[in-house]
Prior knowledge:
Elements: E1 5-9, H1 16-31, E2 40-44, H2 50-57, E3 62-66, H3 83-88, E4 93-96, H4 99-105, H5 109-121, E5 125-130, H6 134-138, H7 142-153, E6 165-169, H8 183-200, H9 203-208, E7 211-214, H10 219-226, E8 233-236, H11 243-255
Parallel strand pairs: 1-2, 1-8, 2-3, 3-4, 4-5, 5-6, 6-7, 7-8
Helix pairs in contact: 1-2, 1-11, 7-8, 10-11
2-phosphoglycolic acid is lined by residues 9, 170, 175-176, 214-217, 235-239.
Amino acid sequence: MRKKFIAGNWKMNLDMAGARALAAGLKGKLSQSGVLERLDVAVCPPFVYLTTIAQVLGDSNIRIGAQNVYFEPQGAFTGEISAEMLKDVGCRYVIVGHSERRHVIGESDDLINQKLRAVLAGDLEAILCIGELLSEREKGKTEEVIDRQLRSGLALVEKHEMARVTIAYEPVWAIGTGKVASPEQAQQAHAFTRGILASLYDDSVSQAVRIQYGGSVKPDNAADLLKQTDVDGALVGGASLKVDDFTGIIKAGGAN
Ligand code: PGA
């Protein structure tokens, strides 16, 4: 049985006061609910708020992730942040390959693979995002895209390291659009993803790796998505910015 994993991706939102208030609100609502014993929960604030949010969350069991990383450990890379630095400020997870980084910033499959390997080398856990554009889905290329992004993203990643990898299937057309994938569409893509993991590694790896769904997850659609056999959690953008919405999604995860 895979433990569900719900992560909030705050993206480039909030100011210091808002980030603090959100973290404190989540801690207040979730700490006593018992739900954090049943599933894993993380928030991924902007870099500049990581230290503060780690302090606010303290020993609450709500973990911290970063939204990005650079693959080199240190040196003359102006403006970049290494995995070691993220670990140093209390991160456990790092999102790599988010569609906004692929399609807005222009990150390549190869760069994403280098980042993922740096996360693992830095003793952190990776959330590798994959997912097709609307045009790719319409052309029937969803599986081809998932296949390519998974194989290139996981290149040179060894079997034992897969215990520290979560996959997030995020159809790009569903991100921030309010157009959520149907539970059936999500299940189909997740089952396909699990099949690729079996071919890259073996059945035990493919059955153990958690696959989150992301793209317009809200409290009212979370339960149906999280009920699917191969949907092991959610990567939540917009709805992770509101205490009640995010806790609603987490509670749906805890009930499934
Ligand atoms: P959304 O974003 O929930 O706002 O659609 C999801 C994501 O980008 O991870």
